[in-house]
């Protein structure tokens, strides 16, 4: 993250991810909790401050466009192309 956003993220503590993946009818759903602390510049003084993060996310990956109809508009659904693999590093960044 510090390489992707060097002006915004000065440091990252170890990231703890707890979660699970379910597979149903050809769709994979990832549900996870992410905990870490980022060091970022203060919005007032630009001095480094710690920003604790603790959040949950759920994403579903489908490989058939017709499966979009299974999900509500507010659910996060990604269409995988040509046997594309799920990249958890990208999901977290």
The run of helices and strands is EEEEEH
Poorly predicted segments: none
Q: State which percent range the strand residues make up.
A: over 45%
Radius of gyration: 17 Å
Structural class: mainly beta
How many strands appear in the DSSP assignment? 5
- Outline, from the CA principal axes? elongated
- The residue fraction in helices comes out at under 10%
Number of helices: 1
* Number of structurally distinct domains: 1
Distance between the termini: 7 Å
**How would you characterize the largest beta sheet?**
5 strands, mixed
Average the pLDDT over all residues and give the rounded result. Answer: 92
Pfam families: YceD
InterPro entries: YceD
Structure description:
It holds the Pfam family YceD. It is built from 1 helix and 5 strands; from the N terminus they run βββββα. It is mainly beta. The radius of gyration is 17 Å and the shape is elongated. It has one helix at 88-92; strands at 11-12, 16-24, 27-41, 48-62, 77-79. Strands 1, 2, 3, 4 and 5 form a 5-stranded mixed beta sheet that branches.
What topology emerges from the helices and strands here?
Layout: E1 11-12, E2 16-24, E3 27-41, E4 48-62, E5 77-79, H1 88-92
Parallel strand pairs: 4-5
Antiparallel strand pairs: 1-3, 2-3, 3-4
Short characterization:
With 93 residues, the chain is mainly beta. It has one helix spanning 88-92, and strands at residues 11-12, 16-24, 27-41, 48-62, 77-79.
């Amino acid at each position: 993250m510090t390489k992707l956003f060097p002006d915004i993220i000065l440091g990252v503590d170890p990231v703890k991810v707890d979660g699970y993946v379910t597979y149903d009818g050809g769709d994979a759903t990832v549900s996870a909790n992410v905990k870490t602390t980022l060091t970022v510049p203060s919005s007032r003084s630009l001095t480094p401050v710690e920003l604790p993060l603790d959040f949950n996310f759920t994403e579903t990956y489908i490989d058939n466009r017709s499966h979009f109809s299974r999900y509500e508009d507010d659910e996060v659904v990604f269409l995988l192309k040509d046997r594309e693999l799920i990249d958890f590093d990208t999901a977290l960044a």
